[in-house]
Amino acid sequence: MVVDHSHALLTAVADTDVSLQNEVEEKFSTCFFHSVDELLSLDLKIDWSLLQTPNGLHAQQAIKALSKSHHVVIEKPWVYRNQNVKK
Asked: In this structure, is the dihedral angle defined by the CA atoms of residues 68, 36, 14 and 48, taken in order, positive or negative?
């Protein structure tokens, strides 16, 4: 996990499960967002994004993160439909 790496800083967590907010903020001393879109709408200094979301959201969220110049790590598959590969 990123929090265990001495050269990494967990900048933010986005999850639709709002019951995790207090635990995430206290345990990791980081910002919590209720959606990936909310997190990506801000100009946070983020080098890379780890997307662990439902398969059908991977391409859309990856494109948004890449447009913010993030390196992107995605749980497989990175696209759900072939037409998203070209995007």
From this structure: negative
Tens of pLDDT along the chain (87 residues) come to: 566 778 888 889 999 999 999 999 999 999 999 999 999 999 888 898 988 888 888 888 999 999 999 999 987 766 666 666 666
- Domain extent at residue 36: 2-84
Structure pTM? 0.75
Whether the Cβ atoms of residue 72 and residue 60 lie closer than 8 Å to each other = no
CATH number of residue 69's parent domain: 3.40.50.720
Distance of alpha carbon 80 from alpha carbon 40, whole angstroms: 21
